[in-house]
Amino acid sequence: MSLAHESSPHDRSAGSAPALPARGLYAITAPMAGGPDALAAAVAAAIEGGARIVQYRDKSADADRRLLEAGALRETCHARAIPFLVNDDVALAAATGADGVHVGLDDASVREAREALGPGGIVGATCHASLERARQAVRAGADYVAFGSFFASPTKPRATPAPVELLEVARSELEVPIAAIGGIDATRGKRLLGAGASYLAVVSGVFGARDVRGAARSYACLFENTKPAAGGWDHGAQGLMEGRTSRPPGVDRR
Question: In angstroms, what CA-CA distances link 149 with 32, 132, 142?
Answer without folding.
Answer: 23, 16, 19
